[in-house]
Amino acid sequence: MVVTKHLPAVHSVARMKRALAYIMNVNKTTIDDVDEIQPDFDFKRSFNSDGVIQKQLVSGYLIDDVETASEEMLLTKQLALKKKGNSKSFFQSAEKDVLVHHLTQSFSPDDKLTPEEIHKIGRKTAIEFLGGDHEFVIATHVDQKHIHNHIIFNSTNQRTLKKFEWHAKKTYNAYRNISDKHAALAGAYIIKPETRRLKQYGSYHREINFKDEIKSRIDFLLRHSISLGDFENKAAALHLDVDWSGKHTIYKLLDHDQKKSTRARSLVRRSEAPKYNLEQIFDVTKRNDGVVFSASEIKAAYDAEQKKLQEEFQLRFTLEPWQVEAQTDEGVYVNLDYGRGKQGTVLIPARSLEQEGGRLEVFINKNDFFYFINPDNSKDNRYMTGATIAKQLTNENATPLIKKNSHISTIHRLVEQYNFLSCNGVTSGTQLEDLLDRFNNELDATESSLNQLDERLVRQKQVSKALLASQSGESFEQELAQKLLTSLNIPEHLTYEKSEILADQIEIETEALRDRYKNIGEQFDKIDDIILEYNYEKDTDNKNSFIN
């Protein structure tokens, strides 16, 4: 399995240099060079005492030389300070801000991936996660059974010179999901494979979550118990141990390998009132009217209810082979296209799938959540509901969406958009599609121009930081600057001031183009949403079958 971590952020220059030195340790990152496939990045190579060629699994991104990675990252920060009118040196300052972030990616020996493959997974993950705008160094450690990547990236954006904002849960989820995607596509196990093989939907049994299972059994018992004693007897029949002897009410599943008992208070959120303590159970059971299952019936009744719940679904649809990017033990990654050129993938877990010949049948609920990953812009990554996923995928492949509960909505949204359509001269479905195509072509052209400008801006910032360092009174900064100036092939007449004027011009052009892209995108979204809604309603009326 792949384990991802975000280690404590680094706040000092000394710690930053120590962290980079640690991850690039030769003894941890060096292997024999037996891989004939050359990557699109260079590893440092050397000969050992036996004359065998070795390589160090360390590479950089937007870094000229990994040996001077810390200095290059600090130059980027120096440029950001200069841009703000601050002349102090980052090299001597004791900044309290986060300088770099440190991520890890650990792989199981069972994954049977080569160190080079694991390194490549890490690079793909980091580039996608950071949007290609942050300097980073990645090192693959091979000194333990579980090969793992260390990724240290600059908190300062190379293009915008802004700080990377780490929002604990949201940002980590984005990193983990991107990592899981690239690892799964490369053949790594994300979780134990035996729990994720494709099965018939009705026969899938979820991986046990002790708290959820305890709550499920208690809730059932509360509906079918008429006293504390009755509750306790029936709990035993459901293999649920209840202990009221101490200060706290505690529970334990006897038919699962639960090592530690669970407190009643931990079964609800902190903001919620207690629900499973002795007092609450007493109050609920004494109010029951006696129409309940007996102790001898309770186990069979509970099992029947759980089976029914497992077989429940609200939406069913078919995936065409061309919609599937990859199939893994975890499930399938499907291609999804929504809104103004936002293409990405969504993982549909194996528990929601049935294999039907060459096709896959999907069973999900409207309010299930799926994580959408946009490889071009991680800021677009988000959770999407089952209803949105189902509507989008069936609209793309023109297959019927089967709904468990019959409900036909109206096309009121199309009516609401009538004025918008009239202003754009749209009076027919053909004109609607033509208008969408026009907007789509404009978006593609604008996006291409933006990408080119971004590349120019990143390079110009590299030039600026090198020229800024050349003006420093510190000899080591001047030496690094000269090295960068030579690597970037910068004309001798170019000064820092002139470089920044060029960068400002690119930024102004970029900002204007981004405004245009946003405006076109908003129009595109309106049209796309209308078409999607229209096609969905038409499909609902003409093709859907409903299960009673």
Outline of this structure?
The chain has 548 residues and is an alpha+beta fold.
Summarize the structure in words:
The chain has 548 residues and is α+β, with helices and mostly antiparallel strands. It folds into 4 domains: 3-190, BirA Bifunctional Protein, domain 2 (2-Layer Sandwich); 210-310, no CATH class; 315-405, no CATH class; 419-542. The chain has 15 helices and 20 strands. It has helices at residues 13-23, 26-29, 69-83, 115-130, 168-185, 210-223, 228-237, 278-287, 298-310, 386-397, 412-416, 418-423, 429-470, 475-488, 496-542, and strands at 3-10, 30-32, 44-47, 53-56, 58-61, 100-106, 136-141, 148-154, 240-243, 250-253, 262-263, 315-319, 324-328, 331-338, 342-349, 353-356, 359-364, 369-373, 382-385, 402-403. The strands form 5 sheets. A 5-stranded antiparallel sheet has the order 1-6-8-7-5. A hairpin with an 8-residue loop joins strand 10 (250-253) and strand 11. The radius of gyration is 29 Å and the shape is globular. The protein starts with a strand and ends in a 6-residue tail after the last helix. Mean pLDDT is 77; it is low at 191-208, 405-419 and 543-548.
Layout of strands and helices, then pairs:
Layout: E1 3-10, H1 13-23, H2 26-29, E2 30-32, E3 44-47, E4 53-56, E5 58-61, H3 69-83, E6 100-106, H4 115-130, E7 136-141, E8 148-154, H5 168-185, H6 210-223, H7 228-237, E9 240-243, E10 250-253, E11 262-263, H8 278-287, H9 298-310, E12 315-319, E13 324-328, E14 331-338, E15 342-349, E16 353-356, E17 359-364, E18 369-373, E19 382-385, H10 386-397, E20 402-403, H11 412-416, H12 418-423, H13 429-470, H14 475-488, H15 496-542
Antiparallel strand pairs: 1-6, 2-4, 3-4, 5-7, 6-8, 7-8, 9-10, 10-11, 12-17, 12-20, 13-14, 14-15, 15-18, 16-17, 18-19
Helix pairs in contact: 3-13, 4-5, 10-15, 13-14, 13-15
